[in-house]
Amino acid sequence: MLTPVTHVLPLTTIQRKRLLPVDGHVRVRAGQHVRGTDVIATAILAPRHHILNLSSGLGVSEAEAERHLERFVEDDVVAGDLIARKKGFISRNVRAPVDGRIVLISGALVFIQEKHGSLELRAGLPGQIRELIIDRGVTLTTTGALVQGVWGNGRIDSGALAVIAANPDQVIDPEQIDVSLRGSVILGGHCSAVEVLERAQTERLRGLILGSLASDLIPAARKMPYPILVLDGFGRLAMNAAAFTLLATNDKREVALNAEPFSRENGARPEVLIPLPPPPTAEIVPDFAELERGQRVRIVRAPYQGTIGTITQIQTGLAVFPNGLRAAAANVKLSGGEIVQVPLVNLEILI
Amino acid sequence: MPTSIVNADALLAIDVGAANTRAFFFDAVEGVYRFVAVGEAVSTYAPPVNDVSEGVHQAIHRLEQISGRQFIRPVDEILIMPTTADNNGVDKVAATISAAAPLKIVSFGLLEEASLESARNLAGTTYGRLVDSISMNDRRHLSGNIDDLMRLAPDLIVVAGGTDGGASKSVFKLLDPLGLACLLQPLNQRPHILYVGNQDIAPEIQSTFAAYTTVHTAPNIRPALEQEQLGPAEGRLREIFRRIHTKRDTGINQLDVWSEGRLLPAAAGFSRVVQFLDQIFEPTKGVLGIDVGAATTNLAVSFPGHGLRQRIYSPFGLGAPAGNLLASGKLAEVMRWLSVSISETDVRDYLLHKGLYPNSLPVTAEELNLEQALAREIIRAAVKGLRPSFPKGLVGSGPGLLPWFEPIVAAGSVLTNAPTRGQSLLMLLDGLEPTGISTVALDHKNMLAPLGALAEINPLLTVQVLESGALHSLGTVISPVGSARPGTPILRVRLSGSEGEEKTLDIKAGMLAAIPLPAGQTANLHLQPLHRFDVGMGGAGRGGKLKVVGGSLGVVIDARGRPLRLSFDPERRRDQNKKWLAALGN
């Protein structure tokens, strides 16, 4: 069965396509090195138009209006610029109400698109621009340790990693966040108090990596100006052991956080990158794979939610679970040696 | 006696759902069409695969393993069509799809409560999301309408307005922002337009807007102020759905080519079967079909003489959209159906987590209970949404209650794959609250939508497969309606089997009871309502005899009352839910 892969990799080559949702302007060149926070492309996502009616403005008929134009389609204008003028004993003028560009003249109507609602697409991760995608974005490559999560608050930043969790399920105490952590990215276990988020803002943290977040903190987390990245889910969950071990052993290293929201529609996932020199072979790791015996997997639903194990057998036929449900299943050996039966759809491959 | 066929085709039906892709194989066996086998795989329309055909090929490959028949030529991965002399391949293909991102739709209509309402109803018959509506009373400036249209970037604009022979100038005026927004957008980003208004100006609309974008026209959905007619426009909407998705989503085009341009939204296939059942079942009752999917829920009802009413609820599914219930403040409504104690925080965590892993399954008793509670609330929301469009004057047990339906068919994994049939039925009874007498059946092989699509190619196949066990009967449900204190006897039931055996039961208000009657067996059911309760046999207090066919739960009497009232006390309510589950053999 084809199954999504979650990456927890100590050293890999990563390739990411970064695209605007609509056509816009790509602001970088191929081969350029960028930081995660660098703007790589811009677009006007929500254009605002101002319509000037020359008939009423100049007191002329629709057919006559065009004759009085002083500016034309594609012209950039600033507020107050003369757009049309009717000369005569009493001259009448129509002027641009805002800075913008004339995008359409239809009959006596002049449409000025205001410079508004600009979207800035950031690189997300530090790396090198490999390919430009005309009007839409880039393909970016980078190397380092990679950890993928399940939720992000949409922010991007980087800083030195500070491990404040002694173990993967430690609940962060607001008192743990003080001025000594200013400019750092914190690695914590579980966050259940809004005070943690607020103190992180006060102390100007550059980011927060969590195993889990209390679901009622989501609205507050979305408002925070720094990236918050959740690796395992909502409620009281320990951070998966693979991610915790990898991150905890990189204390004080520079990490880049791209906390973009997990999206099934565009495939975006929140990620932590620890930039490192390239591996000997630049093999791109897959984003999905067939489930097979021997694979390392993470269980995504109760009763073993967040636990990592290894597939010992893909069962033939349908397995019956204690609640009576029947589903295709695998036997998974957990780190303690226990073998448990898990529906295939409740597994994700960990590479 | 089944009709025998001479030149039988072998047919493949492919259904691409939000969670699973299935390939069904049908062939003639001893002169009658039969369902032979199904192959199933995970759907791959979404990232990281982003290609529908990967899941389709996997499902077909699985079908090949099960059936021993080859459908895809290994050398070049091409579908073998027609059937070869060595019995490989197929003659025809049907395809349905419910996966892929819903269409973004903006509706235009003259009046809020007339044409605009009909435009919204029409939009609800496809996998779409209505993102804005514009009417004559819209308070936005022209530039505001244009900005919003450009910001929302709809795939489709549905334009209604003007009864036939009625308003025309105001329709053109209404469309000013649309024409201008089209002019301001790049050619490849302009929406399709479906015009379903005053037919007198349809050619002029077509010629005016064809210069900007693709324009489709269909008969007026509001030909008169008091008349709504969605049917013909629904067909055109299906065609637009097909055109947009074949162009936009990788792999869908291949399905469309295989099915010779007949790719159908799965909901349309499902509804076609509901309409078909309406033609063959009781002429006085309607047929109800509900499909609770991973991403959407489809409710279709067909009434004799009134035709189909259908609504697809895009935010309501058991997969990714589960978290949407949080936003709509429905947490308490979901929780009232629980039979185990789960905190509000845990329910919220569960819903959010389910959104992250929409295909995952509940393995613990608590999560299963929660998922089934969610299904009940989704079904209730679907019924509440569609009920206003039911025709007036339907036969039933009273205002505000569901009219009589025969049969009720249900699809979707949460219902068909529930660990016990009692759980399946109780979800439906709690969600739908049927009245009178109804047979309830499950689409246990998930093949109604593909069968509906196949009906266009080979109607005989659809009929014969439906007759040969495509539906699994849960039983006959009697839902008396009336008023009595709990514990008051309201109905006497006597079941006489074909071999003379009899079972009698006195039903009291508040009870939920099942009388076993194995599938395939018939019996005579004698009903004698008391206290003027209505069981759907001609009026309050009227009883009689009817022939019933068994099902996995036999005959079920749901005397819990309509509308169903749950205790306000959480602990008592949980006990109530537990007791009802136990009554159906859980």
Structural domain count of chain B = 3
What is the CATH first-level class name of the largest domain in chain A? Alpha Beta
Coarse shape of chain A: elongated
C-alpha termini separation of chain A: 16 Å
Name the helicity range of chain A: under 10%
Number of strands of chain B: 24
Secondary-structure-derived class of chain A: mainly beta
Number of domains of chain A: 3
Number of strands of chain A: 28
Question: Total helix count of chain B?
Answer: 18
Give me the CATH fold name of the largest domain in chain A: Glucose Oxidase, domain 1
CATH architecture of the largest domain in chain A: 3-Layer(bba) Sandwich
Mean pLDDT of chain B: 92
Low-confidence stretches of chain A: none
> Strand order across the biggest sheet of chain B?
15-14-13-16-17-18-24-21
| Chain-averaged pLDDT of chain A | 93
Describe this structure in a few short sentences:
The complex is a heterodimer of chains A (351) and B (586). Chain A is mainly beta.
3D architecture notes:
The complex is a heterodimer of chains A (351) and B (586). Helices cover 9% and strands 45% of the residues of chain A. Chain A has 351 residues and is mainly beta. Chain A has 3 domains: 2-13 and 139-275, Glucose Oxidase, domain 1 (3-Layer(bba) Sandwich), CATH 3.50.30; 48-114, OB fold (Dihydrolipoamide Acetyltransferase, E2P), CATH 2.40.50; 291-350, SH3 type barrels (Roll), CATH 2.30.30.30. In chain A, the strands form 5 sheets. In chain A, strands 2, 4, 13, 14, 15, 16, 17, 18, 19, 20, 21 and 22 form a 12-stranded mixed beta sheet that branches. The radius of gyration of chain A is 27 Å and the shape is elongated. In chain A, 40% of the residues are buried. Chain B folds into 3 domains: 11-97, Ubiquitin-like (UB roll); 103-241, 3-Layer(aba) Sandwich (Rossmann fold), CATH 3.40.50.2300; 268-315 and 394-564 and 579-583, no CATH class. The radius of gyration of chain B is 25 Å and the shape is globular. Classes of the chains: A mainly beta (351), B alpha/beta (586).
